[in-house]
């Protein structure tokens, strides 16, 4: 091994929890993480505020606290808009960053940077490197400036075809097959049935022209309908695939015309036959998101050597389809594997295409997606549910472990590598409706929202399932940790005079401390302070509300509301950090608190490369063999 780091790599595993990682390493499930830990330095007390994705990854790439880099929540408030939570947008674009990133600083110095699926990185400013879109949770998707929980994908999002109704699918039924070309005689003699599928391609970054696809089912024996083929037209010779129940298709390459100009884009997807009854009355086909080959990378041809036929992107590992009852747990794990293989192919290809790279930053969201769906079952499920959830957790970490092994096989000896998560998670506790706490103090007015809306599940789980009435509210709760004084001079619908600002703000703080949760009879708020006082833990910038509050960990909606020291049940809000490479101590455990902002200055110190202009963190000298020098 060389004695000095010449390049750096950051491998990000969103929401990986230290004590869960340690438990799985201890049982021997994660050989590559265990090896990395033994050959490097491991940190046990990882902190950041707030404990949520965009601000945390922004701190990891700028070395600046949220008060400085300008991202203080999962959501972003656009000045001049209503304070209503529904008007906030998801905080993922690079244009909102007020601090310089490490790759932009190094790029100016002529270094070659590879940045793949890193939140808050897109659009790219790089002149010498390569960036794969990081404007959401997955590559080739955008969430920036989109309200609520929606997103757009390149080319489009997952869907399904079923005889039942699903919000993200096409409902259709089988009829006698007519007018087909090139049907084999054995199929034609089996009384095949057809299903007509009008494809609209939802959540597309750029609108696709609609297409009509056709499905065909027949009996391979005499036991009922058991084979299905999907075709772009009524010509069996052009079938995308033929599969049976519970089977995945291979990766399909298709042509997709754009609605605006008719140009053809290549797209790649897979399908799984989830249901097909003997009489074909019950049918369900899952269709993955369709990923393209460019339009989400810079330069635009950066991925020209990537083999997109190896696997699909599998955005959100099917979590939306799972929530809608379209797929099951087994399919979620399969999609997680597909997603990891897609990222692996992209990263290893870029490393081969650019052997002279100086910086690599990447992010994987698998663990976070998993915990949002299953952490609660790990804690509060019955014995069968708990066992299944823990088994699934093991598989998710093993997928990441396999990815780590491949990445380290491709990692040059002169690279200083950091494995990191942005935050942890705790099981879902009793949810705080902040508006109700303020309403009881006469500060806020709202109406409960119907649960019929598709997003009600997310709103309810995060305490926002209500419609605020700004014109009757002195105080407005917004996003995860903020309450605003509803100033008449500043906000649409505001009713508070400027001279009453401090009085109302003090009333907000008192109301938060006085509130007792109806399910427990206890106070859920651990801390409520004026925004300027939140600067002591890195918050309180322009994007913070007038009052910043923190919940006790047992009242969390997994993460985002609590101090990073929070522990509850099987979860923890701390993040992981491991270092390995030239000059790094082996088998060393660093037990002092450290912050995510310390990553950038440590990388720069080890390589002698430029420190970004706004970096505020400190070098973690203690992990180096020669730190005294």
Q: What gyration radius follows from the Cα positions, in whole Å?
A: 26 Å
What's the number of helices? 14
**Count of strand segments:** 34
Low-pLDDT residue spans: none
Q: How far is the N terminus from the C terminus?
A: 20 Å
Shape: globular
The proportion of residues forming helix, as a percent range, comes to: 10-25%
Estimated structural class = alpha+beta
Give the percentage of residues in beta strands.
Answer: 15-25%
> What composes the largest sheet?
9 strands, mixed
- Average predicted local confidence, pLDDT: 95
Strand order of the largest sheet: 22-6-5-23-1-24-33-2-34
Would you summarize the structure shown here?
The protein is an alpha+beta fold and 629 residues long. Helix content is 24%, strand content 23%. It contains 14 helices and 34 strands.
Keywords:
9-stranded mixed β-sheet; 629 residues; 5-stranded antiparallel β-sheet; alpha+beta
SSE layout and pairing:
Elements: E1 7-13, H1 18-26, H2 31-38, E2 41-47, H3 53-62, H4 66-69, E3 75-76, E4 89-90, H5 102-108, E5 113-116, E6 130-132, E7 141-142, E8 152-153, E9 155-156, E10 159-162, E11 169-171, E12 175-176, H6 185-188, E13 193-199, E14 211-218, E15 227-231, E16 241-244, E17 252-257, E18 264-269, E19 271-276, E20 283-287, E21 290-291, E22 297-298, H7 319-323, H8 329-353, E23 359-364, H9 366-380, H10 383-409, E24 415-420, H11 434-440, E25 446-448, H12 456-461, E26 466-468, E27 475-478, E28 482-485, H13 501-514, E29 525-530, E30 547-551, E31 567-568, E32 571-572, E33 575-580, E34 588-595, H14 599-607
Parallel strand pairs: 1-23, 1-24, 2-34, 5-6, 5-23, 10-11
Antiparallel strand pairs: 2-33, 3-4, 6-22, 7-8, 9-21, 10-20, 12-13, 13-14, 14-15, 15-16, 17-18, 19-20, 24-33, 25-26, 27-28, 28-30, 29-30, 31-32
């Amino acid at each position: 091994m060389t004695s000095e780091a010449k390049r750096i790599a950051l491998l990000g595993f969103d929401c990986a929890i230290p004590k869960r990682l340690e438990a799985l390493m201890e049982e021997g499930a994660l050989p590559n993480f265990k090896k990395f830990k033994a050959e490097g330095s491991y940190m046990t007390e990882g902190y950041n505020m707030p404990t949520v994705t965009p601000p945390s990854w922004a701190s990891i790439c700028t070395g600046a606290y949220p008060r400085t880099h300008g991202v203080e929540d999962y959501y972003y408030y656009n000045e001049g808009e209503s304070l209503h939570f529904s008007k906030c947008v998801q905080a993922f674009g690079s244009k909102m960053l007020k601090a310089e990133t490490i790759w932009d600083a190094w790029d100016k110095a002529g270094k070659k940077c590879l940045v793949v699926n890193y939140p808050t990185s897109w659009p790219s400013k790089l002149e010498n490197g390569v960036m794969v879109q990081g404007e959401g949770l997955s590559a080739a998707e955008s969430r920036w400036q989109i309200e609520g929980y929606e997103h757009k994908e390149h080319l489009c999002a997952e869907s399904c075809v079923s005889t039942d109704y699903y919000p993200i699918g096409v409902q259709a039924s089988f009829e006698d097959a007519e007018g087909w070309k090139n049907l084999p005689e054995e199929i034609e003699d089996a009384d095949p049935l057809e299903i007509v599928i009008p494809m609209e391609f939802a959540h597309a970054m750029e609108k696709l022209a609609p297409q009509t696809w056709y499905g065909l089912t027949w009996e391979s024996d005499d036991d009922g309908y058991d084979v299905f083929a999907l075709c772009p037209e009524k010509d069996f010779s052009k079938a995308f695939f033929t599969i049976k129940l519970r089977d995945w298709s291979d990766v399909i390459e298709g042509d997709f015309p754009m609605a605006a100009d008719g140009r053809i884009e290549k797209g790649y997807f897979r399908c799984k036959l989830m249901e097909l009854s003997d009489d074909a009355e019950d049918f369900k086909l899952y269709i993955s998101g369709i990923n393209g080959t460019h339009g989400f990378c810079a330069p635009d041809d950066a991925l020209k050597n990537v083999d997109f036929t190896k696997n699909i992107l599998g955005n959100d590992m099917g979590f939306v389809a799972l929530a809608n009852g379209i797929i099951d747990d087994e399919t979620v794990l399969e999609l997680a594997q597909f997603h990891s293989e897609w990222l692996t192919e992209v990263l290893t290809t870029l490393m081969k295409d650019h052997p002279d790279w100086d910086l690599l930053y990447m992010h994987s969201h698998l663990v976070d997606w998993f915990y949002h769906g299953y952490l609660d079952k790990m804690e509060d499920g019955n014995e069968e549910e708990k066992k299944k959830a823990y088994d699934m957790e093991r598989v998710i970490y093993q997928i990441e472990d396999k990815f780590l092994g491949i990445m380290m096989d491709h990692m040059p000896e002169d690279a200083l590598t950091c494995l990191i998560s942005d935050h942890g998670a705790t099981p879902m506790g009793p949810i705080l409706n902040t508006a109700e706490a303020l309403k009881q103090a006469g500060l806020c007015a709202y109406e409960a929202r119907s649960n019929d809306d598709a997003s009600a599940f997310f709103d309810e789980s995060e305490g926002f399932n209500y419609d605020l009435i700004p014109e009757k509210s002195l105080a407005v709760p917004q996003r995860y940790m903020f309450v605003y004084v509803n100033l008449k001079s500043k906000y649409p619908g505001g009713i508070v005079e400027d001279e009453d600002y401090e009085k109302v703000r003090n009333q907000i703080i008192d109301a938060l401390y006085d509130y007792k949760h109806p399910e427990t009879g206890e106070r859920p708020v651990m801390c409520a302070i004026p925004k300027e006082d939140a600067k002591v833990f890195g918050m309180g910038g322009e994007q913070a509300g007038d009052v910043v509050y923190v919940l006790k960990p047992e009242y969390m909606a997994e993460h985002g509301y609590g101090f990073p020291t929070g522990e509850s049940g099987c979860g923890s809000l701390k993040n992981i950090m491991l270092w390995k490479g030239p000059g790094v101590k082996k088998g060393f455990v660093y037990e002092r608190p450290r912050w995510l902002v310390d990553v950038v200055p440590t990388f720069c110190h080890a390589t002698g490369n430029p420190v970004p202009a706004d970096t505020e963190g400190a070098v973690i000298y203690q992990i180096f063999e020669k730190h005294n020098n």
